[in-house]
Amino acid sequence: MSTALLTLDHVTTYYAQMRILEGISLQVGEGELVCLLGGNASGKSTTLKTILGIVRPRSGHVLLGGQDVTNWPVPQRIARGIAIVPENRRLFGQLTVLENLELGAVLRRGENLGDDFDRVYGLFPRLYERRGQLAGTLSGGEQQMVAMGRALMSRPRLLLMDEPSMGLSPALVQQNFQIIADIHASGVSVLMVEQNATMALSIADRGYVLSTGVIVLEGSASELLSSEDLKRAYLGR
Question: Do the domain assignments include residue 7?
Fold first, then answer.
């Protein structure tokens, strides 16, 4: 595996007295696309919140580029190159597409954003056409494009994606995953939380499987795709 950009080292996370993650360890290497699989209530979203610093682990460490950021606040982690495409997109519906994209570059005030807009509009030509439209009036697929474009405007080293296929039609899911693969091919490291195991593994380098807060399987994407253990652990058969 390539040099680790992100490392979770035996992380245990609680909500009040309820343990959500128990001693999980995972890595995302420079330039890797890694998927984190699991069913509902498996701990996937909590893992992302722990990486971002929204939730602090009870024990264990979060490292970014080899530096311990376990106790860093969210803005400091984002400034170091983490961006997220959140579940359900969470756009500012009363702002235009352009304004939502600009918010993704809020920590880059004063910089020339022309190349970044060109990149986003190159990936999502529809957003150029809709740039003056209120984000809340867009279709679900178009809103997902805005959420992804907004994250890319920060020039992330590590892109976190929370259930990117949720709520999309099968055709849009296919298109969405192709765009994620293109983003990865451009050199951005990606950690993708996803319930659609087959689609996620079809574009990933490696994967982990969470079950009730514990990593029960890990391996290359090809190994997991052919794994009977994956079917039992993840699909329940």
Answer: yes
How far apart, in Å, are the Cα atoms of 112 and each of 97, 102, 116, 224?
A: 18, 12, 8, 42
Residues, the chain: 237
Q: Which of 5, 137, 159 is nearest to 69 (CA)?
A: 5
In a domain, 199, yes or no: yes
Whether 234 contacts 38, CB under 8 Å: yes
Fill in the DSSP letter of residue 195: S
**What's the structural domain count of the chain?**
1
- The Cα 174–Cα 166 span in angstroms is 12
Q: Is residue 102 a part of any domain in this protein?
A: no
- Residue 200, domain extent: 1-81+159-164+193-237
CA dist 130 and 50 (Å) reads: 34
Helix 140-152 crosses helix 170-185 at what angle (to 10 degrees)? 10
For the whole model, what pTM was predicted? Answer: 0.89
Q: Write the DSSP string, 89-146.
A: ----TTSBHHHHHHHTTGGGTTS--HHHHHHHHHH-HHHHHTTTSBGGGS-HHHHHHH
pLDDT in tens, 209-225: 999 999 999 999 999 98
- Residue 38, domain member (yes or no): yes
The kind and range of the H/E element at 28 are strand 18-29
Quote the CA–CA distance of 43 and 32 in Å, as a whole number.
22
Q: Which is more confidently placed, 2 or 170?
A: 170
pLDDT tens sequence across 90-134: 787 789 999 989 988 887 777 888 889 999 999 899 999 999 989
Provide the CATH number for the domain around residue 54: 3.40.50.300
